Give the backbone structure.
Amino acid sequence: MNLSIIDWLIIVIVLGGMFISVSFTKGLMRSVTDFLSAGRSAGRYLISVSSGAAGLGAISIVLFLEVGYITGFSFQWWGLSQGIILLAITTSGWVIYRFRQTRSLTLAQFFEKRYSRNFRIFAGTVAFVCGLINFGIFPAVGAQFFISYCGFPDFFLGIPTFPLVMIFLISIALYFVYTGGQIAVIIADFFQGVFLIVVLFIITIFLYKNVGWDQVSDSLKNTPIKIAEEEVQKLQNEESFKLLSDLEKLEKIEDINHKIQNSSLINPFKTSQVEDFNLTYFLIGLIGMFYGALSWQGHQAYNSSAKSAHEAKMAAVLGDIRWKPQGLFIFLVPVLTYVFMNHPDFQSIADNVNRTLESLDTQTLKSQMRAPIVLSEVLPVGLLGAFAALMLAAFISTHDTYLHSWASIFVQDVMMPLRKKPFNKEEHIKALRYSIFGVAIFIFVFSLVFDQNQEIALYFAVTFAIFAGGVGAVIIGGLYWDKGTTEGAWAAMIIGATIAVTGTIVPQFSDTWLNDAENLTGFKNFILKLREINGIKYYALSMGFSSLSYIVVSLLTFKEKMNMDKLLNRGIYSIKEEIKVIDENVKPIFKIIGIGKEFTIEDKITYLVSYIWNIFFTLVFVFGTIYNLSNSVSDESWMVYWKYQIYINVVFSFIIIIWFTIGGFVDIKKMFRSLSSSERDHGDTGWVDN
């Protein structure tokens, strides 16, 4: 094993801290609403840190390490293009604010209010199936990480280690969810989130201090050239190449050189040949940020846990700021692992890593585990255990959240609408717990049998699209367009799901089967064409065709406008305690940027921080792009830019960690006080009385 006694002790302490944090929530859960949405009592910092921890699970860390290793620094530049979109979404409260105004416990409950009960059941079923398939590989990736990182043997007492590790990890997450529902989940995820961002920050600084900037520059610049030379040498040794004409030989060599020159790890404007993670990936991502807001139901409980719509909006704004410390790790650490694997000064580390990688069965696993194995080789005692504890916390934070979310969706949006009358309290909570256990069983079995054959990011994109590809149009249309119809919603969901399911199934056709399918030439060619479309492009297709179908079908079937005031609890339908007015006379300049009458001075400062940060880097992106399109910028100049961006992120990350930790503890105190003293509405269960 790779870990020392000190490392294991750190893991045990962190795990014990998780259990202690959850114990604080005992006795607070007194209603179905408490189980589903923490009694709608969570503050902005608590939601931001907790949902951030759930969003950056162990599998996401593996994902970012994998993608960053492939793309280097270039990946980060196009990420800046998302800043202005993210700013517009968060500061406007796009979708999130209006959804919270509906007081829906789940998205599908909103669908029943807006469309129909049958559509709620259908949408809930699609969301549930989508979530299970997407969630299904989480235990496998998590277990494989711990086996590779910790150096576990293949068998323990004659039993394969892989399923044992999965059972252990899933069992801990199950305990947290069973203990106190969303209250326990949000508290556990908060403490895990604080630990996560602190350790990620320390590890990033440690690795950066132990790798020279010249080594980083040399590796990113020269390794692709070395790879090209090796590919050319391999090509020249092939017998088929020797038979070609001189012109044909030259063309093939130039193709290799062209690809390498346009797969830069430093200059983002020379990445046209980067497979899968190029400009197209980010352009689709930009559209998806706007279109898919609130679509991902893995975090649906956080959307309804906020004390008010305004608090949910501010949590989204803070979520953008809170991402910076995590972003620093994602930005820098994959590049540093690339240096360890490719710079001559670290050859011994690379040799050890490659020997370990040879024991893995598939290229997919090797790609996923390369960076974690590098970290297991270079991190010292203490940090080695801290990173393992971090990944354990990240695994649990995501799993307890997703177990809760997908199980809740099944009960709230499939089971309950099929009933003629609502559950009583005891029946309701029992059904939720049984559903949670069922989800746990499914993801365990799915992880055992499913064949992972593409990058995690692309798998996420296509499985996400099963639900999100169609539901984006349904959500936006339902919240902002009073002419959107139930028929339009059905059309959008069916078309979006069909396209995405196709993209999920197609990669499962093995190369062996396709090669043997001699009598199915037409079908084989069709499948091969579909396989050329990656996961993110399937998502784009589902968004486009679903939106078009929603608009067209709604216009064809429109009869009567929706009463939006009643849906959103505003005007004569408003609920007084939902809105806390601070300033009736808001200046017009503030209104333009989304600052309303509910904003305190603290809210305004937070808003301005988010605006200044995103506008600054958006301007950097815009002017940088314009300049690069008309001028040739050297790799050396780009490395200077990347160096200064690292320094800026280090300073801000340190401030953010302190700021959000204090804010989160204040929110916990307020939530405990509220849950201990407030009266419960036991009729608030997600039931829609038609």
About this structure: Residues 123 and 264 are 42 Å apart (CA to CA). Residues 161-209 form the longest helix (49 residues). The chain has a mean pLDDT of 82. Residues 454-559 form one domain.
